[in-house]
Specification:
Helices cover 30% and strands 16% of the residues. By secondary structure, the chain is an alpha/beta fold. It has seven helices and ten strands. Strand 9, helix 7 and strand 10 form a beta-alpha-beta unit. The protein binds fructose -6-phosphate.
């Protein structure tokens, strides 16, 4: 068993988890109005984004100097495809904020030269001075970003073959499983680890086992999230269902 320095916060429910995460983001933005924020897609951060939008509208927290980098994007989907993570981010967050378009960064899933695109993306993150605060979800198989089990901890932004279980888990966003891309571009594990601070959110019973292994299991490339035990500033915020296997 590997000793963890991660801070664990048990929230009563999804809304409380989202609110706590939003408070951490908002205080970071207040403290550093030109921070680079690392963002995720999927179901888990939707409540966080809702809270950030509400705060922007009520309290005027500004994103004019903020830059964002997202974890990943499906290969083969153009920006405008409704299932692209570009579209997800526009529809669930960016269109409600005052962030300049050219401050928003996601990998281009329809790039002609995908290897070059991975390098371009890694360079963008380095040139921005790395991520100040990164939010992560966790896959049922322990993936972070789209770094599936077995991905080297040393990986930088790269192309990944999505596991069948990940495609099935994400099929709910598409009309049919066949439409779910088989590959994605994802920040690598070493890219994620360069973030100065990380918040991992886990919600629902489906994440209970991965959450348990993250906190109590070994450091192993078979559970990509386990690398977070070696990061000095990680906060894991879990709701009751995701925490159900913890003591
Ligand atoms: C999303 C991402 C993934 C998700 C994970 C959990 O950008 O990189 O790691 O965070 O698959 O997805 P949800 O939140 O839909 O359960």
């Amino acid at each position: 068993m590997t000793q963890t320095t991660m801070r664990i916060i048990k929230a009563d429910n999804y809304d409380e988890m989202s609110q706590i995460a939003a408070e951490i983001f908002i205080s970071k933005i207040k403290q550093k109005p030109d921070a680079v924020l690392g963002l995720a897609t999927g179901s888990t951060p939707l409540g966080l984004y809702k809270n950030l939008i509400e705060d922007h509208q009520k309290n005027g927290t500004s994103y004019q100097q903020i830059h964002t980098v997202n974890l990943d994007e499906y290969i083969g989907l153009s920006k405008d495809n409704p299932n692209s993570y570009h579209s997800y981010m526009m529809n669930n967050l960016f269109k409600y904020l005052d962030i300049p378009q050219n401050h928003i960064h996601l990998p281009h899933g329809d790039a002609v030269d995908l290897l070059q695109e991975c390098e371009r993306y890694e360079t963008i993150i380095n040139d921005l001075g790395n991520v100040e605060l990164q939010v992560l979800g966790i896959g049922k198989n322990g993936h972070i970003g789209f770094n599936e089990p077995g991905t080297p901890f040393s990986s930088k932004t790269h192309i990944i073959e999505l596991k069948e279980s990940t495609r099935q888990a994400n099929a709910r966003f598409f009309n049919h499983l066949d439409e779910v891309p088989k590959q994605a571009i994802t920040m690598g594990i070493s890219t994620i680890m360069k973030s100065k601070e990380i918040i991992l959110l886990a919600s629902g019973e489906a994440k209970a086992e991965a959450t348990y292994k993250l906190i109590h299991g070994d450091l192993t490339e078979q559970l990509p999230a386990s690398i977070l035990k070696q990061h000095p500033a990680v906060t894991v915020i879990v709701d009751k269902e995701a925490a159900s296997m913890l003591d």
